[in-house]
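Chain A, query sequence.
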Amino acid sequence: MNQFADEDVIAHVLAQCRTIAVVGMSADPARDSYQVGRYLQQSGYHIVPVNPTYAGSKILGESCHATLREAAEAMQAQGRQIEMVDCFRRPDAMEAVADDAIDIGARCLWMQLGVINLAAAGKARAAGLAVVMDRCTKIEHAYR
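Chain A, predicted structure.
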């Protein structure tokens, strides 16, 4: 275990969290967020793109939402719940994302490679969410 990710937590959330909001997802196939989202989708996860730049459009055939809260409302209308919040945002944006993840009832806050915010992680853990920081969902899933 390192300070940012417990291997058992990673294995558990990848097995249990099947609906994933990809916060900061790009429509550009060259971007990491697009590639990770595509990989997760092809691996059987339901992805929910979240990016105000692309709100109202579709990315990988899925409706993109401006905010995590809007995405959660849309999923709720479909009888689904966002279980994991996979973040491609700057570290300084993560406390607000953690607040939203808590508010929507997510089970996991996952911060991608290079995204480290200890305050956001502490806040999410205190609210009962699993937290992974500085790890890539695609790499971790492919590794298992």
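The helical segments are 7-16, 32-42, 68-77, 94-104, 118-126, 137-143. DSSP finds six helices and seven strands in the chain.
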